[in-house]
Amino acid sequence: MADAGAPAGRVAAPTVSLASFNAWDRAVAAAFIRPCLDVDRWVNTVVDGRPFAEVADLAQVAAQAATALSHDEIEAAMSHHPRIGESPSGTSREATLSQGEQSGLQVDDELSRRLRQGNAAYERRFGRVFLIRAAGRSASEIVALLETRLGHDDATEERVVGQQLGEIAVLRLQALVTP
């Protein structure tokens, strides 16, 4: 049964206390964190790690669970990520999280051009959208990293994407679950 005011199978509030997250029914807790990283193994590991004493403990388990994502897990998770520099569409919790993550990007015309060109080159090269933790990074830093990553081989880039997915998942989880 859902706890702490959460309706069965759905969480209405954008954030929740750690105590409430710890108390929720497994299915409700899993549905709540799935927008952070839509990988069954990650969701199950985090939910099964409850109860957590501190948000830092939750973040540590989430970070560890995101290491060594398989190719299939990366591809599944990537299907939900918008292009960097484009406004995520929709009203889902995942779209809302993406909008917040990219909200601080200040992109002038030259950076916008380089970002569009880089995104297109990346998609041709790797067959997926370019993914990077945007939070805490400037647009010029993101463009420089995009241009650098175009030189990666497939295996190196897949490891980097997996690391970025993990960083994004932990940041999102920390934004959703409060002390």
Structural notes for this entry:
- 58% of the residues lie in helices and 2% in strands.
- The protein has nine helices and two strands; from the N terminus they run E-H-H-H-H-H-H-H-H-H-E.
- The protein has helices spanning 18-23, 26-33, 40-48, 55-65, 71-78, 93-102, 109-126, 139-149, 154-176; strands at residues 16-17, 177-178.
- The two termini are 22 Å apart.
- Mean pLDDT is 86; it is low at 1-13.
How is this structure best summarized?
The protein is mostly helical and 179 residues long. The protein is 58% helix and 2% strand.
Rg, rounded, reads 17 Å
Main-sheet strand order equals 1-2
**In total, how many beta strands?**
2
- Mind summarizing the main beta sheet? 2 strands, parallel
Q: How would you state the average pLDDT, rounded? A: 86
Q: What is the distance, rounded to the nearest whole angstrom, between the alpha carbons of the first and last residues?
A: 22 Å
Q: Helical percent range?
A: 55-70%
What is the string of helix and strand elements? EHHHHHHHHHE
Poorly predicted runs of 5 or more residues: 1-13
- In terms of DSSP E residues, the strand content is under 5%
Structural class: mainly alpha
Number of helices: 9
The best one-word shape is elongated
